[in-house]
Amino acid sequence: MDLFIPALLTIITAATPLLFAALGEMVTEKSGVLNLGVEGMMVMGAIVGFVAEYYSGSATMAIVASILAGAAMAAIFALLVLEFHASQVPTGLALTIFGIGLSALVGQSMIGIAYEGLPKISIPVLSSIPVIGPLLFQQDFLVYLSIVMVAAIHYFLNKTRAGLILRAVGDSHDAAHAMGYSVVKIRFMAILFGGAMAGLSGAYLSLAYSPMWIEQMTAGRGWIALALVVFACWRTLRVLLGAYLFGGISILQLHAQALGIGIPSQVMSMLPYLATIFVLVIISRDVSKIKLNAPASLGRAFHPSR
Amino acid sequence: MLKKTLLSLILAAGVAVAGNAAAVTKVAFVYVGPIGDHGYSYQHDQGRLAVEKEFGDKVKTSYVESVPEGADAERVIRQLAASGNDIIFTTSFGFMNPTLKVAKSFPKVKFEHATGYKRAKNVSTYSARFYEGRTVLGTIAGKMTKSNVVGYIASFPIPEVIRGIDAFTLALRKVNPQAIVKVVWVNSWFDPGKEGDAAKTLIDQGADIITQHTDSPAPLQVAESRGVYGFGQASDMKSYAPKAQLTAIVDDWNYYYIERVKAVMDGTWKSTDSWYGLKQGMVEMAPYGDAVPADVRKLADEVKQSIIDGKLHPFQGPIKDQKGKLVVKAGEVVSDKELLGLNWYVEGVEGSIPK
Known about the structure:
The structure holds 2 protein chains of 2 kinds. By secondary structure, chain A is mostly helical. Chain A contains 13 helices and 2 strands. Chain A is globular and about 60 Å long. By secondary structure, chain B is α/β, with parallel strands linked by helices. Chain B folds into 2 domains: 2-128, Rossmann fold, CATH 3.40.50; 131-250 and 284-350, Rossmann fold (3-Layer(aba) Sandwich). Mean pLDDT of chain B is 89; it is low at 13-21.
């Protein structure tokens, strides 16, 4: 079992970027907006964070810059879909394409530069627990933050008035509007938050996961995050579970291969998507189940004049 | 999908505006990854730049990057052919069938497909004998591994990749019969995160040297941070792993691209099959890292030189397969034809080829 700990450590790093992006997208979707631009916001977070680290030498600056970059991308999306009533699906797709192109442009001079990665933070006392100590309590800042965000978002959505309003806007924007809530403002905030989280996810990729800049280094993780939100039925704790499950599958299949266990690696590579399709089929069979949690106004444009 | 469509539209528009000067030869390249990968596609683009430098105003080059292998590729290639290019280089194995299909409808356009095996009157193939470089890597790895476990990160189970694994393993075990190779397939040419994860996995399972047939520097960077060694892929990746990179296989397409474009200009272009290696300089080795001791450098240099001189063939018998069965007798070598379709592991490789 001496492989157990190293495998788990690798799973944590594989799961963290998925967790950030999926949490952010979940909040955005809870407000009734489907933003398919996760990949684009993520990749912009990755490059801007890397550039900031390169010029400032400060990890904090880098992370803040990533958050701002993700949020700025999201702001473009928000402006288009909320103010100009552009259709959400193509706008989100365009945002992804735009982000990939822009990040490549910004990152031209960053190719070939190495960075040693975010410093690890040991939590005193806890990190000296045998076996699980080094595993759970010697991570970089972003890993801890991702777990804190799970708790914070769970609390926000389920226990606060603001969270209730956000969900109301996502379920019926007309009713929320009639109640006097500013649908556009609330959705704008939710989209910005989703972008900031995608930016963090990008920061994790370029500063901690594989600390360098390479064009399109997100390699489809934004899409996995989108699938993860559906897989989790828009529930925070299930997003956590799902991110670690997806991360776990992708790492364990590598270990299985290196051990010579004969599972075709192609099958393992498609498992996350198969699982998502499976969940989609299950929840769409039962209308009441999906209604409980899928935001009812998801993807619908809101015109206050109507 | 959408991105590719946009790209080809933009490309078509650009080409339409820029074209028409009669003496200009138009050259197009299709890359499987982004040119910023600092690896495989990057090196092809260096070749494109070399063509531009060589011929100046006489050529007009263009490229489409990150083209997925499959149906999308055909559209991109067709678009390039339709927009008046004289010669089109398609630089990845998976572009083979799309290239041939398009070539049929554009008999006047010349096509050059990298690493494939199907040709036509207007389709040439070209490839580099990367496996010769892998023989040098295997020799170094065999001398430098202490755990006798070497990790190999592989992309897709095609002959090109299997050939590399086998050549590496043969050379490894020639100098160190105890050493084994663990292979992990990541089903991608380019996914820094996954490649890095694969490297971590292999190191966790005891590998103290990592080599790769994927395109990003991520595995090397993991090797650097974990204090083990590795080899650069397609391009000198020393900047990512100043301590860990022992050497790198560097693809150098410049000469070939210049030669073929010149043939188009002179009207002497013919469908050919070129497979160049260390001797012609299409495969080169990056300078050794500081960690490589003098005796290992000397041995690696000797291996390289004897391949260049034709005294050593990377696939020289006796060769046993994974089950220990003698497949190539002493004194025989594996023919080019067999090498091009190679689909079995030699003794010393762990695991099985994904089917």
